[in-house]
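wait is this the right file?? whatever heres the structure
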């Protein structure tokens, strides 16, 4: 198109270059300190159309502002004379996807953030790396997944030219569409309007904080019924860059084939992003295809993380796949290498597997477990903690006008480990564990073996969209409702300890206490069923379904409500108790110990007593 006229005009204190052609006029403004840009701003308008859409491109197509303007609109020129208006143009955010021609400049998936921010996000879980894994488990549950696999495997990385560990988290949930993936890539998003009790995700940063704590690079492969998407969040890719790039490739189903979805991205951009992913990851097109085949025409999400966080010269995580270095059988698990116990006021016991064993943590992660979770290929025997207690008492109360229900009871496992405390759940997800309250804060022996379980969803929600839960979901904010709740929990725990102090007993001759009720979970519907009192739980098979003995009913039957003394079958929970009991003569000379049940003398403070007293434990 030939230009008819090119002229420069002086307007107030700056110059505007005007280029006119047959169909449109171009207005070129020089760089401005007001705009804080190191490049020119170009605008255009059509002169042979009554009402057309125009676009203003700021910088290198970092954003596109669309509007409507008539050729006769005399407000066009003043808009450019008033540079204060231009300074308000937003130049950040992910650009609106649009179809471009092959020779047009690619609009990459940029957000306005320094790449170092990815490392900053990971520090949300700097105190405990399992909190990062929990974020990804939460996303799977919110996607209504019924199965989740967590494992670490070795994979060859061509960039580093060696085998490296690859952490994978794979679920069979409903997957994410292109729009969902774009939201996932954003740093925070609007909270859901509906406060669904079963939904955990709320802050919009869980995936980013979790993935970047676990490793430097993460690839997401997700599939819905009619689409598939790849997203790459990488510190390696963004090294020495001024802006953060997140390559995303989306496909649309056409019959049995997935093809690039040109409705949300140009084909050239998809090719560029796919090439970038292959260059900076261990994944080539064959491996990506192999992982996509795991969906088997179903939905789900796969997350792969590599360049894992390091602990000295090794990795922060270590993993066991059933055989240790000496080729002896061990339980498949993922551990925190340091084996450090988390700091809790009043706690002295060093036997807290939940703090360093992923399997132990996932067993009690959810208030009512539904999803099958596998760690290193082995099923986690999840258990509802409130149904694994002895001498159970249910306490109801009102905290700032909101009702709460606390289940208190004795746990043989925690007695053996000299542990106690409250387990606080929010939206059915564990937030705090072994929280000592009341007298147990100041006396290590008080409350030994006593566990409390409570869901505080309503208490820490003001009903106006604000919740007093930390963004990393590992604690609560210091607020009035939580302070009142803490005091109430302390009162109830002290009352329970005072009422049951003399009645607590140890096992005799290695035999566990016999629970009044035992529960088993169906491997199909994931509902919990109460076993008959006469039924021997040792006869349960490794996989149990509702139609089998002793329930022998359909999975459609509603889940039973629990009351009284309840526990989960020791066999299906996977716990072994090698308890050695000393004779009565040995007990008299036995020194206090916190290592096991050989501790038969307890220095404890009873509520209302004048001081400490020594009490011999009765043997059943």
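ok assuming it is, sequence goes like this
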């Amino acid at each position: 198109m030939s230009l008819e006229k090119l002229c420069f005009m002086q307007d107030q204190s700056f110059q505007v270059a005007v280029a006119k052609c047959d169909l449109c006029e171009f207005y070129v403004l020089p760089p401005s300190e007001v705009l804080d840009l190191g490049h020119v701003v170009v605008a255009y308008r059509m002169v042979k159309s009554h009402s057309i859409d125009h676009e203003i491109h700021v910088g290198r197509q970092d954003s596109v502002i669309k509007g409507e303007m008539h050729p006769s609109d005399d407000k066009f020129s003043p808009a450019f004379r008033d540079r204060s208006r231009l300074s308000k143009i937003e130049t950040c955010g992910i650009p609106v996807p649009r179809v471009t021609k092959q020779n047009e400049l690619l609009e990459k998936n940029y957000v306005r953030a320094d790449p170092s921010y990815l490392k900053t996000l990971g520090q949300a879980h700097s105190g405990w790396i399992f909190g990062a894994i929990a974020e990804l488990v939460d996303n799977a549950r919110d996607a209504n997944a019924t199965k989740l696999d967590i494992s670490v495997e070795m994979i060859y990385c061509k960039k580093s030219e060696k085998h490296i560990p690859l952490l994978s988290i794979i679920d069979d949930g409903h997957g994410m569409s292109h729009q969902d993936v774009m939201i996932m890539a954003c740093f925070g998003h609007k909270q859901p309007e509906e406060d669904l009790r079963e939904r955990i995700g709320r802050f919009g940063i869980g995936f980013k904080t979790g993935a970047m704590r676990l490793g430097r690079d993460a690839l997401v492969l997700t599939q819905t019924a009619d689409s598939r998407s790849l997203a790459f969040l990488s510190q390696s890719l963004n090294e020495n860059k001024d802006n953060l790039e997140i390559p995303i490739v989306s496909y649309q189903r056409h019959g049995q084939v997935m093809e690039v979805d040109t409705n949300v991205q140009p084909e050239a951009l998809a090719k560029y992003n796919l090439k970038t992913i292959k260059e900076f990851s261990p994944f080539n097109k064959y491996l990506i295809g192999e992982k996509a085949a795991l969906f088997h025409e179903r939905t789900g999400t796969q997350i792969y993380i590599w360049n894992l966080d390091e602990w000295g010269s090794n990795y922060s995580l270590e993993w066991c796949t059933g055989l240790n270095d000496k080729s002896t059988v061990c339980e498949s698990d993922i551990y925190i290498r340091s084996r450090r116990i988390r700091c809790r006021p009043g706690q002295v016991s060093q036997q807290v597997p939940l703090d360093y064993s992923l399997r132990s943590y996932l067993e009690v992660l959810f208030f009512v477990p539904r999803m099958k979770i596998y760690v290193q290929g082995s099923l986690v025997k999840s258990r509802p903690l409130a149904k694994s207690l002895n001498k159970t008492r249910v306490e109801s109360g009102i905290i700032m006008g909101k009702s709460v229900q606390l289940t208190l009871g004795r746990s043989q496992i925690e007695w053996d480990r000299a542990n106690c405390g409250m387990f606080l759940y929010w939206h059915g997800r564990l937030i705090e564990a072994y929280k000592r309250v009341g007298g147990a804060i100041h006396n290590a022996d008080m409350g030994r073996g006593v566990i409390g379980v409570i869901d505080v969803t309503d208490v820490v929600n003001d009903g106006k969209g604000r919740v007093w839960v930390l963004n990393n979901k590992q604690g609560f904010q210091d607020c009035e409702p939580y302070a009142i709740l803490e005091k109430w929990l302390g009162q109830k725990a002290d009352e329970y300890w005072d009422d049951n102090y003399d009645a607590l007993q140890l096992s005799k001759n290695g035999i566990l206490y016999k629970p009044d009720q035992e529960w088993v979970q169906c491997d199909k519907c994931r509902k919990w069923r109460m076993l008959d009192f006469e039924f021997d739980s040792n006869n349960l098979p490794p996989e149990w379904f509702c139609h089998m003995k002793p329930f022998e009913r359909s999975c459609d039957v509603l889940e039973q409500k629990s009351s009284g003394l309840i526990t989960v079958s020791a066999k299906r929970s996977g716990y072994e108790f090698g308890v050695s009991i000393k004779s009565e003569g040995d007990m008299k000379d036995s020194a206090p110990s916190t290592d096991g049940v050989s501790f038969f003398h307890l220095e404890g403070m009873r509520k209302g007593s004048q001081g400490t007293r020594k009490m011999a434990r009765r043997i059943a």
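The two ends are 99 Å apart (CA to CA). so i think its the right one actually
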